[in-house]
Design a protein that fits this description.
Elements (H helix, E strand, L loop, with lengths): L17 H9 L3 H6 L11 E10 L2 E13 L5 E12 L2 H6 L4 H21 L5 E12 L2 E10 L6 H13 L3 E12 L10 E7 L5 E13 L2
Antiparallel strand pairs: 1-2, 1-4, 2-3, 3-6, 4-5, 6-8, 7-8
InterPro entries: DUF3182
Protein name: DUF3182 family protein
Pfam family, one: DUF3182
């Protein structure tokens, strides 16, 4: 069960029994019930990937990356960043650089969601990101599906912008590996050319540090 207004993997509760569900519902206010709750299957031993596109003027970058989690000061599991490989161009350009069958399926699922949104909603967004979950292998194959979409500035946006900036600056650059990190507690060690997004406290007064950096730049052979 998840609060639809929560972010960063926060405010989620795993329900394993009917009794646990009854106990959880007793803690939920009438207002929260009226706003709705998200019900999702709890897939253990899973990994969440970020797939999407970002566009500034005529420059388009498409990316596949892995999300990371950490624990905040209260010990709650939270979003801790993403490592992205951003390529120049659209979905076909991204698929051209993806080799493994599972990675291709991740991209294709996000692409199918994106194309459906364009067809049915007429969606126009300069930043389109999809969280894709990959679960353990079962007798029916790998479990893989889109969890949710983000058609706004999101957690990994600083890394996306840094990568797109590199692609725009040099036409020989074909791909960029960029990372966005969020850390709780002690201050992070920043490099001179890091894009430091935030150093301060979160909404609950706990230390939070957020930065993006370029890790690798790939050129034409």
């Amino acid at each position: 069960m998840q609060n639809p207004y929560a972010s960063g993997g926060k405010d989620q509760t795993v329900i394993e029994t009917v009794r646990a569900l009854d106990g959880f519902l007793e803690t939920v206010s009438d207002r929260e019930i009226a706003n709705g709750l998200v019900v999702e299957e709890d897939v253990e031993n899973s990994t969440t990937y970020s797939v999407g596109q970002v566009q500034i003027e005529d420059h388009i970058g498409s990316y596949l990356g892995r999300q990371y989690t950490s624990h905040d000061e209260d010990g709650s599991k939270v979003y801790a960043g993403s490592r992205l490989r951003v390529v120049r161009g659209g979905w076909d350009a991204l698929l051209h650089q993806v080799q493994s069958p599972v990675a291709r399926r991740i991209v294709e699922n996000a692409r199918r969601y994106d194309e459906a949104a364009l067809q049915h909603l007429g969606l126009v967004a300069s930043r389109r990101n999809y969280d894709v979950l990959v679960g353990p292998i079962t007798e029916n194959g790998v479990r893989c599906g889109v969890l949710e979409q983000s058609w706004r500035v999101g957690g990994a946006s600083p890394a996306e912008v840094l990568a797109l900036e590199k692609l725009a600056q040099d036409e020989t650059v074909t791909a960029v590996q960029a990372v966005l990190r969020e850390s709780y507690g002690q201050p992070s060690t920043f490099n001179e050319d890091d894009f430091v997004v935030y150093v301060g406290d979160d909404d609950f007064g706990r230390p939070l540090h957020k930065y993006a950096r370029i890790e690798k730049i790939y050129h034409d052979p």
